[in-house]
Design a protein that fits this description.
Structural class: mainly alpha
Shape: globular
Order of helices and strands: HHHEEHHHHHHHHH
Radius of gyration: 21 Å
Number of helices: 12
Largest sheet: 2 strands, antiparallel
Length: 369
């Protein structure tokens, strides 16, 4: 087993618990739903981390070949059913993203991420040399496109929809290194995104009913939307800018004191920057770089293509999600809710992320046998 990967995972989780408590203790102590307990979020996250760690080692003990094939097809179908089941539960903050049973809540979009990694691995392995045939992209990418569309239209979770499809696209890119066509596709996608932004700015800026249009406007002109859609972004930028080189000190940040909404979730990176400074933020980023490097190393040394694609899928998931979270916190892209793996608060997210790590650890163990 790749024990260096295990050390990196535990280090990130330790940093996550420390920063989560620092970011959330004020809000938790002020909310009746948290029983006015400053350690409310810390305790819940710790429980999920322990459960996720147990799951990670259980998953790592099972041959990863059992996860592909029929089981991956079942996981993909279950993910579609679970996302559709959100329609039968009451919305939270205006969105139907959760399945709630008693005191237990579950976010199906997080399960869709690991399901699409398993399912795409099965499709790529089965396709074999057929990946280079005409229509292969349509045959393989239609399934993640369906899952992404369902997540977007039912849960209105654009970030998860993007991640699910981007992970599948990244795996297909590795499986079929036809770089010329992918470069043209990337250029076309960039041009399309630029055209959409131009249209929103020039023709839809006054469309107050479309909150996604307003988020784009807030991204381009955060000061002009400082009291509405850009409020969270502006406060996060204040936190990042005030941290300096070495930060204000652990626990001494000010923006978490009721200024940044849901700071323990999407914007926890801003607290890292404010309290630990650029130095601390760079250290955290370097730990994610090391994590991604180990994932790629395992992909290169896997005993077969199935293990390689599973590791590549997990790499794509982690890399994309880390990039999106930091890009949102720094206003590099429009605001869209996405957690920072191992660090942001979220039980479902940490549980399935650690399950993915378990799969990769099993790939590494078999590669070393």
């Amino acid at each position: 087993m790749d024990y260096s990967l295990v050390v990196i995972i535990f280090f990130l989780m330790a940093i996550g618990l420390i920063m989560l408590y620092s970011a959330s203790y004020y809000e938790a102590s002020m909310k009746a739903s948290c029983n006015y307990d400053p350690a409310f979020y810390l305790k819940k996250q710790l429980i999920w981390m322990v459960a996720g760690t147990v799951l990670m080692f259980l998953v790592a003990a099972v041959d990863y070949h059992h996860y592909i094939g029929k089981l991956s097809v079942l996981a993909y179908r279950v993910s579609l059913i679970l996302v559709a089941a959100c329609l039968f539960f009451d919305p939270v903050n205006g969105a139907r993203r959760w399945i709630r049973l008693g005191g237990f809540s579950f976010q199906p979009a997080e399960f869709s991420k690991i399901a699409i990694i398993l399912f795409m691995t099965t499709l790529i392995v089965r396709e074999g040399t057929g990946l280079y045939r005409k229509g292969a992209a349509i045959r393989l990418l239609a399934f993640p496109l369906l899952a992404s569309a369902e997540i977007y239209f039912i849960t209105e979770n654009l970030s998860s929809a993007i991640i699910v499809f981007a992970v599948a696209f990244g795996m297909f890119f590795v499986a079929r290194p036809d770089y010329g066509k992918f470069i043209l596709l990337a250029l076309a996608g960039t041009a399309f995104a630029a055209a959409v932004v131009w249209f929103i700015v020039h023709y839809a800026a006054g469309e107050s009913g479309n909150f996604r249009f307003r988020r784009v406007i807030a991204w381009l002109d955060p000061e002009g939307e400082a009291s509405s859609k850009a409020f969270q972004t502006i406060q996060a930028l204040y936190a990042i800018g005030s941290g300096g080189l070495f930060g204000k000190g652990l626990g001494r940040g000010m923006q978490k004191l009721g200024y940044i909404p849901e700071v323990q979730n999407d914007m926890i990176f801003s607290v890292i920057c404010e309290e630990l400074g650029i130095f601390g933020a760079v250290c955290v980023i370097l730990m994610f770089v090391l994590l991604c490097w180990r994932l790629l190393r395992i992909a290169f040394t896997a005993r077969d293509v199935a293990g390689s694609y599973l590791s590549v899928g997990v790499f794509c998931h982690i890399a994309i999600q880390v990039f999106l979270n930091i890009a949102v916190a720094t206003n590099t892209i429009p605001n869209t809710g996405v957690t920072l793996p191992f660090i942001s608060y979220g039980g479902t997210s940490i549980l399935f992320t650690l399950a993915e790590m378990g799969i990769v650890l099993n790939v590494s163990r078999q590669a070393g046998e």
